[in-house]
Structures are given as structure tokens and as C-alpha cells.
Write a structure and sequence with these properties.
Number of helices: 9
Structural class: alpha+beta
Strand content: 15-25%
Distance between the termini: 30 Å
Length: 356
């Protein structure tokens, strides 16, 4: 998710924002004292309570507004000479500023509550990947294309079960909040398959049936997803891979990078997994080997000139074989942000897996 500053999400404003009205007040007062009496700057103070309303609560704004009224109404202070209707006008501005501050604080509290609930719900769908699952070390990164969301149309998960450690990386048609329901449905089916299905191909068939059932009865649903399924059987020193129309994983062995070109099957959701079961590829894993699995949001990202991001060419420069998976994930994301000058416009998922 592209992060927003906390004060834009309902959190307390930063220190500079809280000090700005006071600094402006002091500057105007000192300026009025320094210039000839024929020039009056005091009326500029009338605008400051409205500014304070965006920095303080109702009580703080009321105190600030009272100070402004005092400076403008008491001639002996030498700041302002407001009287009659002029002072009444400033008083009305002050009262309105207090009301604005109260409404803003209430809205901010509601916004924080709503965002907290939304983030908790999204994290329940796609929780962070632990540093290690069984014997497999792992690290994942997810960035949703839709601003302000934690989950979009990509997914990944790593789970241990009776048949070993299994992982999935997928890309659902569409992105943003509209795809979250499909992501949740696929992840739920995957977690069941980890426990119940002895074969990795059967897990793929389960996910395919799930999407077929979800789109049943919906005209022109066109609900499908690409996915890469991986399995680390206990004690065999290998990884099994099933590709359902997904970009190939990268095997990082020392300084070398190799695409693992598993025979691709049809994407999930087309109802073909049981008719034409996907092929399972066994790949030997050595100590120190790492697998980098990603969605097409990475390799289809472009720079300003329209060049696609060359992941397999850049990974050797970003990665030290001795680094943990989290370091590689962070390096890939930072390089992708630099390459695209701010980050790709599509959902991005990156998962790195390794055996100790």
C-alpha cells in the first residue's frame, strides 16, 4: 500500500502544524509593534482562529480565539483597535472556527475508527507472512494499486500441512477492493487444500472449482486468476511447482538467476483443472538457494520511456546470497520504485522462499 502521512488519515497533526497558528500570531504582533501606528496589521489576526481550527480541538481553538479577541479589542495592547461591528464580526469568525474544530475532531475520530476496522478486515484476508514456516524461510511484500488499501487483486500465502510447506502466489482479474472477495475465496480454499489434498495438482483443482462456483449464474462473470503453487515436501530437498498461467519463478543460486519454466496450465476459474490436470515440476533445492515468486505487476512495470522492468537482470545486483529473504524483498521493491519513479500502477506481490 502506498502510505499516506498519518495526519491525513485522522492521526494528530504534526508539531509544525500545531505551532503554525501561534507562530503567525507572534509574528503579526511583533510586526505591528515595529511599524508606524498608521499601518494596522491587527485585522490579519482575524483569520488565524480559522487556521487554528485545523490544528487544535474545540477547546484549544476557543482559547486561541479568545487571545485574538483580546488583542484586537484591548487598544492598550497596541495590536488592534477593533470596535463595534468589526469586533462582533471577528467574534463570529471565532465561534465558527470553534465549531469547525469540533466537527473536524469528530470526523477524524470516525475516520480513524473506520480505517482501523477496514485494515483489520484486510489483514485478516491477507496476513503478513511469518519469517519461517516449518523449515522454509520466507518474506513477502504486497503493494495494492488502489490508494488507501492493503489488499487488491494479488495474493500470496505460505502454510504448513501434513504434506509439507505449501505456498501460493496469485493474480486475480482486476485489482483494488473489487477483487478482495475473490482473493479471500481463493486463500480460504488454498488453506483447506494444504490440509486435505495430498497432491499439489489437487490443490490447483480445488482453487479452480472455487472460482467456477463463485462465477456460476453470473452473466459474463469472466472470473479467473493466474497462480503459482509451490510445495516443499518434508525431507526431500526439492520444491514442487504447479503453474496456472502465472509468470515463472526465479531460482537464485549464488550469483546466478534462472527462470523455472514449469509447463503452464490454464488459469484458474476456467474449469479445466480436472479435465487437463496441471503438470507438476520437481526442482532440486540446495542449501542457500532462494526462490523469488512475483506477480506481473513487477515485470510489467515500465519506466518513463516505456521499458519493462527487467527483474531477472537486476536481481543479481540487488541480492547477496548471504542476505535473509526480507533483505531481497526490500531491495527489489526499492529498485522497482526507483525504476518507475514512484512505484508501478498495478498491484504488486513478491514472495521469497528459501531452505536453510
Amino acid at each position: 500500500m502506498r502510505d499516506e502521512p498519518g495526519w491525513l488519515r485522522g492521526a494528530p497533526p504534526p508539531r509544525w502544524a500545531r505551532l503554525a497558528p501561534v507562530v503567525a500570531l507572534v509574528v503579526l504582533v511583533l510586526a505591528q509593534q515595529a511599524i508606524p501606528g498608521t499601518m494596522e496589521l491587527g485585522y490579519f489576526l482575524a483569520a488565524l482562529p480559522a487556521v487554528a481550527a485545523f490544528s487544535y480541538g474545540a477547546t484549544g481553538t476557543a482559547v486561541f480565539a479568545g487571545v485574538v479577541l483580546l488583542l484586537l479589542g484591548v487598544r492598550e495592547l497596541g495590536v488592534g483597535r477593533a470596535q463595534g461591528t468589526d469586533l462582533a464580526t471577528v467574534a463570529v469568525v471565532c465561534v465558527l472556527s470553534v465549531v469547525i474544530a469540533w466537527v473536524r475532531r469528530r470526523r477524524d475520530a470516525q475516520l480513524v475508527s473506520v480505517r482501523t476496522v477496514a485494515e483489520a478486515a484486510q489483514l485478516a484476508v491477507l496476513p503478513p507472512v511469518p519469517e519461517q514456516v516449518g523449515p522454509v524461510r520466507c518474506s513477502g511484500l504486497y503493494r495494492a494499486a488502489q490508494r488507501g488499501t492493503l489488499v487488491g487483486g494479488d495474493l500470496f500465502d505460505v502454510r504448513a500441512g501434513p504434506y509439507g510447506v505449501r505456498a501460493v502466489v496469485g493474480d486475480v482479474q482486476g485489482h483494488g477492493l473489487a477483487a478482495v472477495g475473490t482473493v479471500a475465496s481463493l486463500l480460504g480454499s488454498f488453506r483447506e487444500g494444504v490440509l486435505d489434498d495430498a497432491e499439489l495438482g489437487a490443490v490447483a483443482a480445488r482453487l479452480d472449482r472455487r472460482l467456477v462456483e463463485d462465477s456460476a449464474g453470473v452473466e459474463h462473470a469472466e472470473l479467473f486468476a493466474t497462480a503459482l503453487l509451490l510445495e516443499f515436501p518434508p525431507g526431500l530437498g526439492l520444491v514442487r511447482i504447479v503453474s496456472c498461467g502465472h509468470p515463472p519463478a526465479l531460482l537464485l543460486r549464488g550469483p546466478k538467476v534462472e527462470e523455472i519454466k514449469a509447463e503452464p496450465a490454464a488459469p484458474l476459474g476456467l474449469g479445466l483443472a480436472e479435465v487437463a490436470p496441471p503438470a507438476v515440476l520437481d526442482v532440486a533445492m540446495r542449501a542457500g538457494d532462494r526462490l523469488l515468486v512475483h506477480t506481473d505487476g513487477v515485470t510489467e512495470a515500465r519506466d518513463a520511456s516505456g521499458v519493462f522492468y527487467p527483474l531477472s537482470d537486476r536481481v543479481p545486483e540487488l541480492s547477496d546470497p548471504a542476505d535473509p529473504p526480507a533483505a531481497l524483498v526490500a531491495a527489489v521493491w526499492q529498485d522497482l520504485v526507483d525504476f518507475t519513479d514512484g512505484g508501478p500502477p498495478d498491484d504488486v506481490a513478491v514472495l521469497v522462499l528459501s531452505l536453510p
